[in-house]
Amino acid sequence: MGEVEEEQKQHYQIDLGNLFAFNPHHNFPSVPPSREELVKECLEQGTKLVQAVADALFSLPSVEDRDGPLVKLPAPTIRLPREKPLPKPRPPTKWEVFAKKKGIQNHKKDKLVFDEQTGTWKRRHGFDRVNDDKDIPIIEAKMTDEPGVDPFAKRRSEKKQRVEKQERHRLHNLKEAAKVGALPSHVQLAATAIPITGTQAAPRKVSKEELQNVAGMAATATASGGKFDKKLPGEKPQKHEKKYRKFLPVVEGSGMGSLERQQTDKVLSKLMSKNSHEILNVEKAVNMYNVKREKKRRNQPGKSSSTSSKLKPKNPHNKTSKKGSSFKGKSKKGSSFKGKSK
């Protein structure tokens, strides 16, 4: 079996420059009956071709490197066809046609130019270029200048006009190149999304739902929300999907007191049910009451301090106390307090 494979490898066409291998003598003895067998046969033949390329690579002289052995591939021997056709030549611009007709030849200009205003060498174009408008503090007036005209603003407007003229010429050249089908490579992607032929794209048809949304926004854009606007024939009133705020009546009446009482009771019941253990603390209330009573007793002359300890109950949750004061209470959660004193 190994000798047969060696003979087959000798008939392989191997191009190491393209890492390509081909077996021109391979033919299926018979068409596989199913797609699974066809895929299996193709994988077997592909594995043999890859193994042949790997064997040819290891036969080349290698150089040891930190990442492993490196092999220099030879020049490719098979010329692969192009995926796309050759680009068409770009048509000449108007200036190139005129220069060729008059025999004008372009000369390469230096990038640096001596600036007489600053006495230094500067770039011809770009940032900090020669004869920059920002470096000119004074402009000499001419006899033909109109009085009251700003010379700096005039220079800026002239420069803007030159830039716009150059842009128009550039777009014209692109239009001519698009007609021939020879757009530059850096414009081909932009040309697919942005038309440069000068014609606007066909307007998209607006759907019925979009028109209804726009009409609804325009109808409710007034101060009354479209309530007092005239309706068009066939126009349906817009539904208000938002919630309205409810306010108390401005003028006092029979029902105003009950509404305020209901609103107050609602707020209090909500607070009591949610934070009842934080709102009322029986222990704290009894302690505050005893402290105030003790201060009041000390301020009165002729009273002894022996009775101060008798005023404070040992347990505020007990039902009765020594002095006849009755207390009724529960735990802190949901606690209620009722009591009497002499």
TrEMBL record:
First and last residue of the signal peptide: none
Keywords per UniProt: Nucleus, Ribosome biogenesis
Cell membrane recorded as keyword: no
Region (Disordered) location: 147-167, 222-262, 287-342
Compositional bias annotation for Basic and acidic residues: 152-167, 227-238
Membrane-crossing residue ranges in chain numbering: none
Coiled coil region boundaries: none
One Pfam family linked to the record: RRS1
GO biological process terms held by the UniProt record: endonucleolytic cleavage in ITS1 to separate SSU-rRNA from 5.8S rRNA and LSU-rRNA from tricistronic rRNA transcript (SSU-rRNA, 5.8S rRNA, LSU-rRNA); ribosomal large subunit biogenesis
Positions with biased composition (Basic residues): 311-322, 329-342
Recorded GO CC terms: nucleolus; preribosome, large subunit precursor
Main location per the UniProt record: nucleus
Localization: Nucleus
Function recorded in the entry: Involved in ribosomal large subunit assembly.
Family the entry assigns: Belongs to the RRS1 family.
PANTHER family: RIBOSOME BIOGENESIS REGULATORY PROTEIN, RIBOSOME BIOGENESIS REGULATORY PROTEIN HOMOLOG
Protein name: Ribosome biogenesis regulatory protein
UniProt source species: Escallonia herrerae
